[in-house]
Amino acid sequence: xxxxxxxxxxxxxxxxxxxxxxxxxxxxxxxxxxxxxxxxxxxxxxxxxxxxxxxxxxxxxxxxxxxxxxxxxxxxxxxxxxxxxxxxxxxxxxxxxxxxxxxxxxxxxxxxxxxxxxxxxxxxxxxxxxxxxxxxxxxxxxxxxxxxxxxxxxxxxxxxxxxxxxxxxxxxxxxxxxxxxxxxxxxxxxxxxxxxxxxxxxxxxxxxxxxxxxxxxxxxxxxxxxxxxxxxxxxxxxxxxxxxxxxxxxxxxxxxxxxxxxxxxxxxxxxxxxxxxxxxxxxxxxxxxxxxxxxxxxxxxxxxxxxxxxxxxxxxxxxxxxxxxxxxxxxxxxxxxxxxxxxxxxxxxxxxxxxxxxxxxxxxxxxxxxxxxxxxxxxxxxxxxxxxxxxxxxxxxxxxxxxxxxxxxxxxxxxxxxxxxxxxxxxxxx
Length: 430
Prior knowledge:
By secondary structure, this protein is an alpha+beta fold. It has 15 helices and 20 strands.
């Protein structure tokens, strides 16, 4: 185990809420402060620690993929540039909903529960009742609160946050953040589909051809990640490489290196692009210190993307909003130009032009080939100004199509005049 891995293991063993210090780790584990700093930074990316203003770096509970849509009170503080008046030890707790205390006390309490953030002004009676019911409090308008309430918040580890923003702006900020987190949750990453590895699904660099054949016969696989004694990824061996090997030859002399690898946080779409472009069937999954933790296959990636395409989407992206303005007809596609799609001059935005072209190609290939796509390159040959309230017809022509790639020409017309022409090269995901 490397020093980096030792530090990460040490951090993971700490209690939730414990402070993490560069100097303390360097002293306890006999490593340099630079090594400790880099490991703590990686731990932050892994979701093991977080930096809290006026508190320092703290060990937190790692969020699962199921809980990624939940925000912590500490993240809320950063978002609204707030000041923590009390309950600092509870900043790493998560919230699932928020409420606005713009009603009588007897009515407010109906909306209060654990993991709730109450947004309220300088109403100390409401603030105390919220804390008694396990809710954190966000005081809008820059107001403070009493010492009694701060003392209660500290004792029960429930944050009290003060913000200079009014209730509307605070609620808007939080709602947008939760919405963004929901969209982020919907994005497939490697962690969602990776397969774990064991002694049978890997080979060591000092193994021979006979060892490879033994693993292949037991597992039915022809591709294996190659590791050293500490399970660090050093290469990839496939049936193509073993053709050149004699029985006594070592795998380390014939393996492909350096191997293409991904991490848990890599998106599945990026993996699909990588595998099609490089023509590979297996991707190893490693930690930041290159330790092998799993593999994904081309079949896993493409199956996941097909299933994802069929799932209902909760969060709405810009492309989703533009797609609402596109109507599929027998001749092609029609787009109604509304004020939402215009630039500062009242003309069709250039970004919208590109989004329409992308959606048109996607719809066309889904209709004709039943395939998903990844845009590889997009060349806009011609653009013309389009006025507000105009209707646009979009026509896609297939120029060339192969097993993995397709080339198309997209022409957009308005009032029988050409307003845009583009060439697109895209990868086909079958």
